[in-house]
Amino acid sequence: MYELARKALLMAEKAGAEEAEIYYASSHSTGVNFKKDSLDNARDRFSEGIGIRAVVNGAVGFASTNSARELENTVEVAVAEARVRESDPDWTGLPSNGKYPVVSGIFDKKVETLELEECIGYAMALVEGTTELPGTLPTSGGFTRAKARQLILNTNGIEIEEESTTVSGFVDVITINGDTSTAYDFAISRSLDIDFFALGKNASELALKSSDGIKIEPQKTDVIFHPFAFSDILEEALAPSIDSDNVQKRRSGLIDKLGEELAVPELSIYDDGLFEAGIETSASDDEGIPSQRTTVIEKGVLKTYLYDTYTAGKAGVNSTGNGSRSSYMSPPAVGLRNFIIDYPETDIIADTRSGIFVNTVIGAHTANSISGDFSVEARNAFTIKDGALDKPIKSLMISGNAFELLKNITGAGLDVRKVGGIITPSIRISDLSVIG
Amino acid sequence: MAGFMQDIKFYDCRIVEGSSTSIILDNGKIEEISKNFTRGAGVRALCGGSWGYTAVEGEIDLKQGVEAASKLAFSMNKNTPKEAIELAAVSSPEIKDLPEIKIDPRNIAIEDKVDLLKDIEANAQVKGVNSTKVMYLESEFKIEYRNSDGLECAYELLNVGFAVSAVASENGVYQAGRESRFGYGYELFEKENVMELAGKAGNTAVELLKAKTPKGGEMPVLLDQELAGVFAHEAVGHASEADLVLEGDSILENRIGEQIASPLVTIVDDPTLHEFGYYPFDAEGVQSRRTEIIRDGIFNSYLHSRETAAKLGGIPGNCRAQGYSMPVVRMSNTFVDNGKAKFEEMLEEIRDGMYLIGSRGGQVNTGEGIFQFNAEKGYLIKDGELTELIRDVSLSGKTLEILNHITLVGNDLKMTAGRCGKAGQLAPVSDGSPHLAISKVLVGGA
Predict the structure, then answer these.
(1) CB of A366 within 8 A of CB of B360?
(2) CA B427, CA B424: separation in Å to the nearest integer?
(3) Which residues of A touch B29 (CB under 8 A)?
(4) Is residue B201 less than 8 Å (CB to CB) from chain A?
(5) How far apart are CA B366 and CA B330, in angstroms?
(6) How far is CA A307 from each of CA A100, A282, A287, A428, rounded to the nearest angstrom?
(7) Distance from CA of A43 to the nearest CA of B (A)
(8) Nearest alpha carbon to residue A140 among A170, A117, A118, A116
């Protein structure tokens, strides 16, 4: 369908669109997956499609397809939808004048040309890592590599094409003797720089360490969140309030808070579409706006919300390059790029006399995305005693508020990790309420 | 065909073609109208103990797809040979009793749909609400299934539904109310009192502003139908999926025939019901059928694919996929069956505790049998009476303990439509329950 993209743009104009945009995306992924300690399946997936935005009289219609035969019909549907809508006074137009930065580290030829046998090797390394120590078995997991290509064209002259690669590994393990405990590890990268054996081994060690957990009394204490746990909470309880669309629709906990001291002064947060080899790095966002680095929180002060072209037009500001799509099937909406948490790093566990360390949480998606309130079940949690992890905790609920967290950060670890697009060290929060 | 084809014992193809329409109305304005046409196929091939799977979109060459999947399976088996996978035998499904559609949504003009949404939204805008959103979804698809044993079958389905949400705020506090309904035909909007539901979403948001966050701890709890349904699906249903059992990731492994729940509890998965999880045959062409997962407290059956049924002994019919993704074992319409208790009786049984209503989602660790769910709202129960409204309450604990702590099962089963996200794929499901009284559970609050 790649070769039909230009034709589709002409079709849209012919069908009566005053402005039109073609978003083409394709991907080819190969995954090798295991169940218990043996390989179960290999999967190859080819996906390709086109999404069309058509604008008539300041109103937008959207339609998409993966079938060349349906393309003409799809274009017409997009134009017809635009005609059904009333003119939107907030619509200022599709992006134009794209001058793109150079980004690096997002495409690795080796990933693109990986043979199935090599994929099998990486999946086996995950399994072998888990068997390094006796007492655990993997339950499931796998290795995946993917290559993606996208092309954005619009009637304002935008034309940007990019290619990228990703590799990822995931492993879930369970203890086989005595008290049952589980753990997982996960990594995603643009190139083959992941130590898959170490991922398997880490998961296995963590599951073993988590066995025979103790019960603790309800209390307020210092909690250190591993990057996995912290990114999960940030994404569900904080990020939605930075989204300008939510702000404009009065669904954000950060309305009218620009310029306010939101967090401790040691904390800065950046949204960065240019970060070297980042999972959310690209020259352009998903509607053709050049990527940029945006300071969201500077020394504790909220500097800006994140915008796509539409919400920026509505607010009378420039897009921050956060137009994002989950696939060619959706029109762009505000989404995070690489979201970088910056706080002075120290050996955080060693610096903590007493408290709790939490590796992962479950239930972060149940957070109240407006108020920032969350209540999660902590997994693979440990007590901290005199600067070291002490005993595993069997079951632990942590309740809090994402905005309060920002004010109560008292430290960060040296263990910065890319959790998808969120890049963060372990973060210590004082006085959190926990129920054992 | 290539030389390795002789080692391929089995292959199958699912061809999915369809379109979906969504309309989103946000604060009185059309936010989005979009339509998506898709066509694609998923092909599986089995060689010894390994599966190969290929998915292609757009114009499909099935022969090429079968070859590609077969090559993957062959290479996997050659590189890491293991015991051959057997598949439970099946016969051609009978396609009957599809949900009847009285009003075809495709015959309703898009302008009329927008007008309906505007009415719904207006009803959600009760005093105190400052933001509303309504979403309409319509999807039609045709699924064709073929396998190397000569089985061929097909069906078409058309769903419609809507979701409405309202947000109220006061002094920096934001609360939301949500309602949704999904079904098979535009008559859904006549059958369900959609305007009343929209009003309910608005009222919930406003009421929650005044609600308190209670003190957490262990206590007796009454669960409403929706939250109890989420428990049935998340905590019990997933642990009964035989693929997880075989991975060693379920607390229900080796428990068939054991009393694992209060004898009042029967939990069923039934894809033949015309609820949102309906299908006439599954992703392996297997006739859908009702399964009693727990009968009178005794663990009765896992949910199976053809592979897991052959391995563990059981009946297949619960293998499902989103679109043309690789199918996995999963639920359909899952519910706790009706008991006899009346609501008032249950309040009396709880005496002092909480009544938890609705769900903002949940998660479960099937291997350890631990779950966590957040309720939308609740009430404190004092001396057997509902008192103060509460919010931000969550429920967590061990699945098997909760099952044994169920002291009363209500007589008011209600189903709720949703989507289950197992294996990174979304599949339509419904879950439900009557009210459940639980003698002791950990509630998280302030």
Answers:
(1) yes
(2) 10
(3) 88
(4) no
(5) 14
(6) 18, 16, 12, 30
(7) 5
(8) A170
- CA–CA gap between residue B440 and residue B321 (Å, rounded): 37
Of B58, B217, B373, the CB nearest to A1: B58
CB-based contact, B111 to chain A, within 8 Å: yes
Q: Do B39 and A84 touch (CB under 8 A)?
A: no
Distances (CA, A) of B187 to A189, B135, B191, B232: 48, 17, 6, 29
In this structure, the answer to whether residues B146 and B20 fall within a common structural domain is yes
Q: Which helix (H) or strand (E) holds A5?
A: helix A5-14
Which whole-number Å values give the CA distances from B16 to A397, B63, B325, B340, in the listed order?
Answer: 42, 16, 10, 43
Look up tokens 């479950």; give the residue. Answer: A362
Amino acid identity at B231: F
Q: How many CB pairs under 8 A join A and B?
A: 233
The total domain count for chain B is 2
Of A139, A249, A377, the CB nearest to B367: A139
Find the largest Cα–Cα distance for chain A.
Answer: 72
Q: Is B50 exposed, middle or buried (0-12, 13-18, 19+ CB in 10 A)?
A: buried
Phi, psi of A199 (to 5 degrees): -60, -50
Residues 237-296 of A with CB under 8 A from B: 249-251, 253
Digit-by-digit pLDDT tens for chain B (446 residues) are 567 888 999 999 999 999 999 999 998 888 889 999 999 999 999 999 999 999 998 888 899 999 999 999 999 999 888 899 999 999 999 998 899 999 999 999 999 999 999 999 999 999 999 999 999 999 999 999 999 999 999 999 999 999 999 999 888 788 999 999 999 999 999 988 999 999 999 999 999 999 998 888 899 999 999 999 999 999 999 999 999 999 889 999 999 999 999 999 999 999 999 999 999 999 999 999 999 999 999 999 999 999 999 999 999 999 999 988 999 999 999 999 999 999 999 999 999 999 999 998 777 889 989 888 889 999 999 999 999 999 988 898 899 999 999 999 999 999 999 989 888 889 999 999 999 999 999 998 65
**Structural domain that includes position B265:** 217-444
Q: Clarify whether residues B254 and B199 are in a common domain.
A: no
What residue ranges define each of the domains in chain A, with the CATH number in brackets? 2-120+145-171 (3.30.2290.10), 213-436 (no CATH)
- B289 and B333 belong to one structural domain: yes
